[in-house]
């Protein structure tokens, strides 16, 4: 009973993490997945996917007025992206920290952007910024739903 309740709480927070076309092209899928796995987050969905321009415009609709918007969408549709949902306590906030700052130049070494990229327009990854946006993004990218499973490490990751 207590175990079931603990599992439910740890699965409650989910974040949408996406490796952009430059990250896929540069062979960084494995490195990025590895960091989230090693941290202790649980992968509940993943796929390589080539969405339409309209799909990206929806995903980035908050940025529609920005000058860089059209070229940013051009970049996003150059090839497949690797879409993931990671679950765990504090997954949204910690996921953002693991990615680093939007501009790789401001990202500390040890973060994904700090270690693997240079330009803001080629910053290799996306991560949800709030729990609310995470759920919106998960619904947009994984309408088929995510996978429920119990990690055998659970009791070694959570107190
Ligand atoms: P994020 O949440 O850290 O990814 O940052 P935002 O939501 O503010 O922006 C979304 C994405 O748009 C960023 O990851 C960048 O790829 C791109 N972007 C943001 N600001 C700029 C900019 O000033 N120039 C360019 N070229 N791209 C930008
Ligand atoms: Mg953002």
From TrEMBL:
Protein name: nucleoside-diphosphate kinase
High-level lineage: Eukaryota, Sar, Stramenopiles, Ochrophyta, Pelagophyceae
Keyword Metal-binding: no
Alphabetical keyword list: Kinase, Transferase
Principal EC category: transferase
Family to which this protein belongs: Belongs to the NDK family.
Enzyme Commission number(s): 2.7.4.6
Species whose genome carries this gene: Pelagomonas calceolata
Cofactor(s) this protein cannot do without: Mg(2+)
């Amino acid at each position: 009973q207590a175990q079931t309740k603990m599992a439910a709480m740890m699965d409650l927070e989910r974040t949408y993490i996406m490796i952009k076309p430059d990250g896929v092209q540069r062979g960084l899928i494995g490195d990025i997945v590895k960091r989230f796995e090693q941290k202790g987050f649980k992968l509940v969905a993943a796929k390589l996917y080539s969405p339409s321009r309209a799909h990206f415009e929806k995903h980035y609709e908050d940025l529609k007025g920005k000058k860089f918007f059209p070229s940013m969408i051009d970049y996003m549709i150059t090839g497949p992206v690797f879409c993931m949902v990671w679950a765990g306590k504090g997954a949204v906030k910690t996921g953002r920290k693991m990615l680093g700052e939007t501009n790789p130049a401001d990202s500390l070494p040890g973060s994904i952007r700090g270690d693997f990229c240079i330009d803001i327009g080629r910053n290799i990854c996306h991560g949800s910024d709030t729990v609310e946006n995470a759920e919106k993004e998960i619904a947009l990218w994984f309408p088929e739903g995510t996978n429920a499973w119990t990690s055998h490490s659970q009791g070694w990751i959570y107190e």
